[in-house]
Design a protein that fits this description.
5 helices, alpha+beta, about 20% helix, single chain
Length: about 200
């Protein structure tokens, strides 16, 4: 009985921690309500396009299994980028840039879920900083938001998958403001998001 209780506690603890989300904005950072207020207009993808966001040219709807993770982890969706905020300097063989942008009141990336009727639904916002640019700016630690360090994305050339999503080494942070994520508001993939209705380029199974 004791071993079963310990097992329950071990497996339950991460879920409780993730769902509790006791994150607090650092000084000068907006809270999630402010980020939502600043980005709600992008629920209309035409507004995003009018303000300079471009749909991922590869038209990929990203899923966890594409990144070598369990399919149950869910998906991200289709990314729309602001090239100026990312400071794009190259796209081949990988997307590279000068971005150290971390302002979530003006995120550099918006993420949409394709719907059955062909429309797109805003599910998350994201910021991305290229590691070389971030370090060149004098930073030794990764960027953080609400006390949570950004995820580090670096491709491992020994694997078939592209862990850096066709980008050079970078830090990124997803914020699931528009689709509740049972695994946590800052978790990269969301099991409540699907690419099942994506009819464009690549998508997971």
């Amino acid at each position: 009985m004791l071993s079963r209780l310990i097992a329950l506690l071990v497996f339950a603890a991460p879920a409780v921690a993730a769902n509790a989300q006791p994150y607090e904005p650092a000084p000068g950072e907006p809270d999630l309500a402010a980020v939502r207020a600043a980005t709600e207009r992008f629920q209309d993808v035409n507004v995003a396009l009018a303000e300079g966001y471009l749909r991922d040219p590869m038209d990929v709807c990203e899923t966890a299994d594409m990144m070598g993770q369990p399919a149950e982890a869910g998906a991200m969706g289709i990314h729309y980028f602001r090239p100026d905020l990312l400071g794009i300097t190259a796209v081949d063989p990988r997307v590279d840039g000068t971005s150290t942008h971390t302002d979530f009141l003006q995120p550099s990336v918006l993420i949409y879920e394709p719907r059955e009727d062909g429309s797109l639904e805003l599910v998350a916002v994201e910021n991305l900083a290229f590691i070389a640019a971030w370090e060149a700016a004098g930073n030794s630690a990764p960027p953080a938001f609400h006390g949570v360090p950004y995820d580090m994305m670096v491709d491992d050339p020994s694997t078939e998958i592209d862990e850096a999503h066709h980008f050079t080494a970078h830090y990124d942070r997803h914020v699931w403001l528009y689709r509740e994520n049972p695994n946590g508001v800052f978790t990269p993939f969301n099991p409540a998001v699907s690419c099942a209705h994506h009819t464009g380029g690549g998508h997971g199974h």
